[in-house]
Design the sequence.
């Protein structure tokens, strides 16, 4: 049985690693082949084919439910019901719509929409909306959040921006009740931590600020404020322990067998908490795991401790094969497997503090390979922070928050409990903030497969009992984490990365021993591309510090992420074409025409138009030459600045040209293109941007020169080996079945 279940899980999990889905006819043929193998007792292969077929069919169904290509970018009138809890912040309401219908087209089952300046929507309302719809699309970089994968795992078939709307029906149903409860929780006095209480009780993280999330990430405690298996399991464990304790004291009715009652009520509590939290995929996964563990404890304990974990994997993946696309799936099951491995074969009893300390040790070391594989930050302060925060939140805050919520109808009592829970959270955040400042999260550079395998083997050795010979060898096997460096460019060559930051610009230039960042991407309210995309990509590529941060000019789409870069990474020098217009914290110096320097055999030259009349014209232009191959970075200069550049005497001939102003109609003049004569052009822009970049006339001019276009929308991040005279590499070339080509 275990062999067949393991083969089924392997087939279901293979989906996560497929570059493309098999043809539909083959997916339907696989189970037939599996049935043909059963008479020959090839059970593992048959079950593997069953799993792969089911996962592939489910994924293909989700892909087929995406918005039709001909509707991409079009505005339609539609109506549907608001589901989940709308997220309101920075004047934007973000929400999901189900049962969307339009008289003009067939729509996906679920949409994710944003309404700038929209009203306070409520879950359960039915709206008629004018929406500009877009097919699922995300930024693709060496080390950043995969938005397209997340959308597919949530089975969201389209995103969009609401232009206007009309309420057709008032809120109703369970979603409306949850929304009303959220409003009640946010209205109580919880020592300023009302948003954190809403996150704990309802799974709604919209009340947590960016600073809060940063602290939680740096201390490895995100799982404590997002309803996860830990919270569901904790409540189930408390209820189970309560009944077991009553039975041990003789206070439980003898005519009622305590074990089935303990398991049943524990599962009912877990299920109720899950429903309160919206019963999203991670919560459903936790409820399944808790339910199977309780069933195993009641009837099947003699079958071994790994069986409930294997059964939970099978059930979760059969119910939702796309769960394997989410990092939380791997971390949840990985954490449970580690705990089983650590505590399953122990001899003798441990005290509570030994148990908690050993668990945190296992999580800190054992999850390291998973965090590295998933590209997630590693928290150095996590073990200590969790040693304090897990019992704090689990045994004090969560029970008080749930009990306070339950007793809200009683005057003063419920609010008093929530005030106390909020106070405990406030104190906890104060301590976590200090820990985060002391030891912030660390994002190692991407490891080669051989180095990752050594680290994984080292963690396994360290988790073995202390009496195992050569256990200390595990520490040596972890050394690749600290001493393995990404391959650096040869002397005289440069590695160039045009990062995918949407409607903005960020270009990394690396020589053998130096690094320069040209622009830092935009910032929209709390969403900072510098923090969310540029920094993780730099660290994933092995850039520990910047010798220069060159901000072409002060427009938000070029300079918005600069403060985040300056705050979280060592920067030797900041230079800009609009130094006076940038925040003083950057300490920027003015760009000077004719300034030249050399790093590792690579030559750099800047140019700046002193007579510029606006920010775009004031962009600092950078020319890079490596082994005779040249790249010209132009910021947002327009045709007037281009004429000034051509009249400056600077030799602008280049093999690679960054299209000025994202391909705007006012730039990329024929005179500039004739003088530069580029072999290839780089365009950094956002999909369906409001400016229409790049303009069709500009694209036609580049095509007339037979210049190859590298567009972040179509290629994702683009890597160039300057000095090798080779073609650029788009990061979307790394095929994933969920990515739109």
Sequence:
């Amino acid at each position: 049985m275990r062999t067949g279940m393991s083969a089924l899980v392997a087939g279901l999990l293979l989906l996560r690693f497929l570059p493309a889905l098999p043809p539909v006819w083959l997916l339907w043929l696989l189970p037939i082949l599996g049935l043909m193998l059963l008479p020959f007792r090839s059970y593992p292969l048959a079950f593997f084919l069953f799993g792969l077929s089911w996962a592939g069919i489910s994924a293909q169904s989700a892909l087929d439910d995406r918005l039709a290509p001909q509707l991409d970018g079009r505005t339609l009138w539609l109506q549907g019901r608001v589901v989940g809890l709308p997220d309101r912040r920075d004047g934007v309401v973000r929400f999901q719509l189900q049962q969307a219908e339009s008289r003009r087209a067939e729509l996906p089952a679920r949409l994710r929409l944003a309404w700038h300046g929209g009203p306070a929507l409520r879950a359960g309302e039915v709206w008629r909306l004018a929406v500009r719809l877009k097919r699922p699309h995300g930024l693709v970089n060496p080390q950043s959040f995969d938005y397209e994968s997340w959308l597919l795992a949530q089975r969201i078939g389209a995103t969009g921006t609401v232009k206007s709307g009309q309420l057709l029906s008032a809120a109703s149903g369970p979603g409306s009740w949850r929304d009303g409860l959220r409003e009640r929780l946010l209205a109580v006095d919880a020592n300023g931590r009302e948003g954190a209480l809403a996150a704990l009780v309802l799974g709604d993280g919209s009340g947590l600020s960016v600073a809060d999330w940063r602290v939680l990430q740096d201390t490895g405690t995100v799982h404590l404020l997002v309803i996860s298996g830990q919270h569901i399991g904790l409540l189930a464990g408390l209820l189970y322990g309560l009944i077991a304790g009553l039975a041990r004291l003789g206070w439980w009715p003898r005519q009622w067998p305590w074990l089935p009652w303990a398991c049943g009520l524990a599962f009912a509590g877990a299920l109720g908490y899950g429903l309160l939290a919206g019963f999203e995929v991670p919560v459903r996964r936790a409820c399944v795991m808790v339910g199977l563990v309780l069933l195993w404890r009641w009837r099947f304990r003699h079958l071994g401790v790994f069986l409930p974990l294997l059964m939970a994997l099978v059930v979760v993946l059969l119910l939702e094969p796309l769960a394997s696309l989410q990092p939380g799936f791997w971390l949840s099951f990985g954490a449970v497997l580690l705990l089983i491995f650590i505590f399953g074969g122990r001899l003798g009893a441990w005290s509570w503090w030994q148990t908690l300390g050993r668990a945190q040790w296992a999580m800190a070391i054992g999850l390291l390979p998973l965090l590295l594989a998933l590209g997630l930050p590693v928290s150095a302060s996590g073990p200590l922070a969790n040693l304090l925060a897990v019992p704090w939140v689990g045994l004090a805050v969560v029970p008080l928050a749930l009990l306070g919520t339950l007793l809200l109808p009683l005057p003063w009592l419920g609010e008093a409990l929530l005030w106390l829970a909020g106070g405990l959270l406030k104190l906890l955040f104060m301590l976590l903030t200090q820990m985060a400042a002391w030891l912030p999260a660390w994002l190692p550079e991407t490891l080669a497969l051989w180095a990752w395998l050594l680290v994984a083997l080292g963690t396994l050795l360290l988790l073995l009992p202390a009496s195992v010979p050569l256990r200390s060898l595990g520490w040596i096997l972890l050394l690749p984490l600290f001493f393995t460096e990404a391959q650096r460019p040869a002397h005289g060559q440069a590695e160039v990365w045009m990062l995918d930051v949407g409607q903005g610009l960020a270009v990394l230039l690396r020589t053998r021993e130096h690094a320069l960042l040209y622009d830092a991407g935009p910032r929209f309210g709390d969403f900072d591309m510098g923090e969310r995309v540029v920094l993780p990509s730099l660290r994933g590529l092995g850039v520990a510090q910047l010798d220069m941060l060159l901000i072409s000019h002060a427009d938000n789409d070029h300079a918005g992420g600069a403060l985040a870069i300056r705050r979280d990474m060592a920067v030797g020098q900041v230079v800009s074409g609009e130094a006076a217009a940038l925040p003083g914290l950057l300490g920027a110096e003015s760009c000077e025409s004719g300034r030249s320097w050399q790093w590792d055999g690579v030559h750099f030259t800047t140019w700046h138009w002193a007579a510029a009349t606006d920010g775009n014209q004031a962009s600092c232009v950078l020319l890079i030459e490596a082994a005779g191959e040249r790249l010209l970075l132009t910021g947002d200069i327009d045709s007037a600045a281009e004429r000034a550049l051509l009249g400056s005497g600077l030799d602008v001939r280049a093999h690679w040209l960054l299209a000025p102003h994202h391909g705007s109609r006012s730039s990329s003049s024929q005179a500039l293109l004739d003088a530069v004569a580029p072999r290839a052009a780089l365009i950094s822009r956002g999909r369906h941007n409001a400016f229409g970049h790049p303009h069709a006339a500009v694209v036609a001019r580049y095509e007339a020169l037979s210049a190859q276009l590298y567009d972040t929308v179509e290629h994702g991040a683009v890597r160039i080996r300057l000095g090798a005279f080779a073609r650029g590499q788009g990061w979307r070339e790394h095929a994933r079945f969920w990515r739109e080509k």
Observations:
- The first strand starts at residue 75 and ends at 89.
- The domain at 69-172 is CATH 2.40.50.140 (OB fold (Dihydrolipoamide Acetyltransferase, E2P)).
- The radius of gyration is 28 Å.
- The CA atoms of residues 191 and 427 lie 10 Å apart.
